[in-house]
Amino acid sequence: MNERPTVREVPRFDLSEAMETYYGRHFDDEGRGEAFTRWINGIRADVKETARHGADPAFILHALVCTWDRRLQRQSEGNEAIGRLTPKTRALLVGGLRLLRTLGEPWLQQVLGDPDRATRFLSVAIELEMNLTGAVVRTPAWESGSRISGKDRAQENAVTACIVCLLEELRHHPKAAAAVADLLKKAGLLRRSRGGAAGPAFVAKRAARARNKAKDRLGPIGNVVWLLRQSYRDLREHLLPLPEIPDTDSIWADQASAWETTAPRYRQAFLGYCRTRDLRPHVEALEHFERELSEIRQRRGMPEVAQVLSNLAGSPVERRPTTGAS
User: Fold this and answer.
1) CA 162, CA 322: separation in Å to the nearest integer?
2) Which runs of consecutive H residues, i.e. helices, occur in 187-314?
3) What secondary structure letter does DSSP report for 71?
4) How many CB atoms lie within 10 A of CB 314?
5) How many other CB atoms are there within 10 angstroms of residue 241's CB atom?
6) DSSP H or E stretch at residue 135
7) In angstroms, rounded to a whole number, what is the distance separating the alpha carbons of residues 244 and 126?
8) Could you give the CA distance from residue 10 to residue 35 in angstroms, rounded to a whole number?
């Protein structure tokens, strides 16, 4: 059965190219444009190639660049008062502040005799501890606070989060782990991780170990996974110039006939698809939808496509009699 591409006469918009241009300007503004150009030249073709396996090259690029240019800066940097402390004095001060946090508000209330004073005192103690031990993680897409637990460990967690995201995006690739390993190697990321020789086995093992941790949005790996995905959704909506497809557009009837259903049901299923993936209903999203339906048809046939459309539409999908190959 032949593949049916989205039938639509619109200028082709490549989000991955827009993403590359956006990050190119970012690094130019920081005076690091040449470094980014060298880096992107080494991975551009491989990133675009991922589209052949149903992946989103723009997200692949976003995950790689935010892992490649991830910097950890101590909050104490530039603070002269903290800078004058000797290492021993700083360690003693941090230890005392942590002890106060461990004792908590009940103990402070007993000492100070005032619940409000105890709350304010503990709040200031926690803030001071963060100034002494905390850090700011900066990527081209976001900034977030973090406790310092070792720069190497933080980068290792970031690489693991990237691996989780890339494997999920390339889940239809026949050799996903090998493809991810190749992307990370060319992006210069595997050499910064621990675990010996980097290859498909390393990627698969790292992802398996992180399976549960990647689901913890507040954890050191799961939080990075969430930030990568959320920042991409925000950036994608900023970069996409495509308007939403009107309800009355003829494309609904054109596409519905390929899937043996009606235009209203097809549109309803597409809107359900967009809701589940936090997408705007524009042509780019419709192409992703069509691609997934084609993959389902190839693997399981039209009955499964009908079921998927029904689930997405939220009500039974009316199927038209088959008139021939689509």
Assistant:
1) 43
2) 200-209, 222-239, 251-256, 263-277, 283-300, 302-313
3) E
4) 12
5) 9
6) strand 134-138
7) 47
8) 35
- End-to-end Cα separation, the chain, in angstroms: 7
Residue ranges of the domains in the chain?
18-70+140-239, 73-138, 251-313
Give me the phi and psi of 319, to 5 degrees please: -100, 135
| Residue carrying structure tokens 């609904």 | 252
List the structure tokens of 262.
């009606």
Pick from 225, 285, 295: nearest CA to 56: 285
Sorted by sequence, the CB contacts under 8 Å of residue 231 that are 6+ apart come out as 62, 66, 141, 142
Spatial distance between the Cα atoms of 238 and 259, rounded to a whole number of angstroms: 32
d(CA 42, CA 168): 23
Residues 291, 1 contacting (CB under 8 angstroms) = no
> How distant, in Å, are the alpha carbons of 75, 127, 165 from that of 122?
19, 9, 38
Axis crossing angle, helix 33-49 with helix 15-29, rounded to the nearest 10: 170
Q: Is 76 helix (H, G, I), strand (E, B) or coil?
A: coil
pLDDT digits (tens), the chain, 326 positions: 444 444 444 445 688 999 999 999 999 999 999 999 999 999 999 999 999 998 999 999 999 999 999 988 776 776 788 878 888 998 898 899 889 888 888 898 899 888 889 888 888 888 787 777 777 788 999 887 665 555 678 889 999 999 999 999 999 999 999 999 999 999 999 864 444 456 899 999 999 999 999 988 878 899 999 999 999 988 987 887 777 888 888 889 988 988 989 999 999 999 999 888 877 788 878 888 998 999 999 988 999 999 999 999 884 434 444 433 33
Please tell me the number of Cα atoms within 13 Å of 45 on its side-chain side: 3
**N residues, the chain:** 326
Rounded Cα gap, residues 75 and 165, in angstroms = 29
